[in-house]
Amino acid sequence: MTNIGNEFGQVLNSVLTTGEGAGLEELCQGIVTRYKNVGKDEPEVIYVDRDCCSQSGVSSVTKLFHPWRSAVRLDSFHFMRRFNCGLTTEHHPLYGTFCAKLSSCIFEWDQEDVQGLKEAKRGEWKSSHSGHEPTEEQLLATITSGEQRRHCRRRSRGVEDIRRMISGLLESVWELTDTTGLRLVNHDTMHHVWEVQQKHLECLQDPPGLKLYTKVV
Questions:
Q1: Percentage of the chain lying above the pLDDT 90 cut
Q2: Distance CA 46, CA 74 (A)
Q3: Contact 41, 32 (CB under 8 A)
Q4: What is the per-residue burial (b if ≥16 Cβ within 10 Å, else e) of 99-137?
Q5: pLDDT for 11-21, tens place per residue?
Q6: 191, 94 in Cβ contact below 8 A?
Q7: What sign has the CA pseudo-torsion 73, 204, 7, 212?
Q8: Cβ–Cβ < 8 Å for 24, 15
Q9: Which of 33, 38, 63, 166 has a Cα-to-Cα distance from 146 of 20 to 30 A?
Q10: What is the H or E stretch that residue 156 is in?
Q11: Which residues does residue 154 pair with via DSSP β-bridges, in sequence order?
């Protein structure tokens, strides 16, 4: 099953085939034709789960959507899922923690948004504490993860920052085990996964100037 969706989460088309890759050209060209017929501009970027880049320099996705000149990027969720191959099991007690830290290696919070949220929470604190100023620790404790996701944007870190942080994360988890002694990471497999995936760090970069968030009330 291959699906194509838009920025609003709507599925524009899908194809179910008996073999991987079959029918994709007709699927993609159908979308190109529909955009052209209604006078809609081609998308600035296409996010994919594979084939984001090529040794020849031209992604197969670019060829499928010809003549569009949209940038092609690798979806971060699918990038992170590739690291599961280097773990002993997804049922390991430390699996969730590893995934959360891996996400933090890829994304950073917009500091202007974070500062705006902190100022709003500071005002709430002072209103409910007779005007007293909260400490930084108290202020941060009032911000829930849900509030931060709702009010603050994230963006991808630079290639070298991602490389450095993921390398540091892997170094920190090599020897971690659960209470039975089961390791979180399979050393040999994870070494190979990381070696291969480093070439895709450029594919995770947000296109310059592209607005990836929709403002809601």
A1: 81
A2: 8
A3: no
A4: bebbeebbebeeeeebeebbeebeeebeeeeeeeebeee
A5: 999 888 887 77
A6: no
A7: negative
A8: yes
A9: 166
A10: strand 154-156
A11: 109
Nearest to 74, CA basis, from 14, 159, 151: 159
Residue 128 CA neighbour count, 13 Å, CB half: 9
Q: Strand 11-15 and strand 2-5: pairing?
A: antiparallel
Both tokens assigned to 152: 């603050």
DSSP tag of 154: E
DSSP of 38-80:
TTPPPPSEEEESS----TTSS-HHHHHTTT---EEEE-HHHHH
Cβ atoms of 28 and 65 within 8 Å: the answer is: yes
Distance (Å, whole) CA 106 – CA 37: 38
Sign of the torsion angle spanned by Cα atoms 57, 61, 63, 68: negative
Q: What is the rounded distance in angstroms from the CA atom of residue 16 to the CA atom of residue 3?
A: 9
* Both tokens assigned to 85: 């191959």
Q: What is the pLDDT of residues 179-192, one digit of tens each?
A: 999 999 999 999 99
